[in-house]
Each structure stands twice: as C-alpha cells, then as structure tokens.
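Before a colleague's protein record goes any further, I have to sign it off. Would you go through it and say whether the fold makes sense for this chain? Take the sequence as given and treat only the tokens as open to question. The record follows directly below this note.
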Amino acid sequence: MNIGQAAKASGVSAKMIRYYEQIGLVPVADRTSSGYRDYSNTDIHMLRFIRRARDLGFSVAEISDLLSLWRDDSRQSSEVKRMAQGHIDELEVKIKALQDMSNTLSMLVNACQGDHRPHCPILKRLETDPEDEDLSIRPRRGAVDRRLQ
C-alpha cells in the first residue's frame, strides 16, 4: 500500500511516517517500480505500535527502545516494565508541575479585579522575580531527542 493508505491504516500521518524513516525509527519502505513507497502489513503493524506508544507519551528515543524490545523474542518483561515505570514517574513530575502552574494562575486570577483599573496582579507576577525562583535556562520537555537523528 502507498504512504497515504499506510497513514490511514495506521493512524500515523504521512509526514510522520517519512520523518520516522528519516531518523531510522522505522526501516525505509520498499519502492514500487514507479518509485512510490510500498508498505506491508508488518509495516502497518509497527506504525500502529508507534502511534499507541506516542499516545501514551513515550518519546521517540523511548519508542526506539520499546521497538527493540518488541522485536527481541528473548527480552525480559522486567525491562519493559522498568521503562514503563520510569515513564510513569516522569508523567507524575509533569502532572505536579502542571498542577502547580494551575494553582498559581488560579490564585492570580482570583486576585485580579478584572475591571477598568490598570493594576493587574497577573502582570505584576510575570514582571517580578520571586526570591526563590530558579532562573537557570531549562530545556523544553517533550522535544524530539536529537540523538536519534
């Protein structure tokens, strides 16, 4: 099947399929005599695996590791469980950070009169550094792992 059909069958966009091929997450598809990509049922199965892993929030690097384990018949489930537990731990940290952000914003919104006056505690908080704020530059979470490129 061509890339459009593979995208529809797997739930992974054609653009992402090309990207996964480019970074080596999936093997480059065979080509038809006319040069079109030709995907097998096995390819579709692998793309669905990747889509489900992405839906659970695994990074491309983690998915690469999961694919390796999936293909290894001698794998130990303890390794897969360890990876999944590590991912849960990361998600819990992100959930706490998001909850802290929500709580702070809620407090600021409740403190804001939202009227015609210029005073706004939301803007005041954004312009003022709290005493204990860590101002070091932090990398964005969830970005693509460039080691795979």
User: Anything to note?
Assistant: The chain has two domains: 3-71, 77-131.
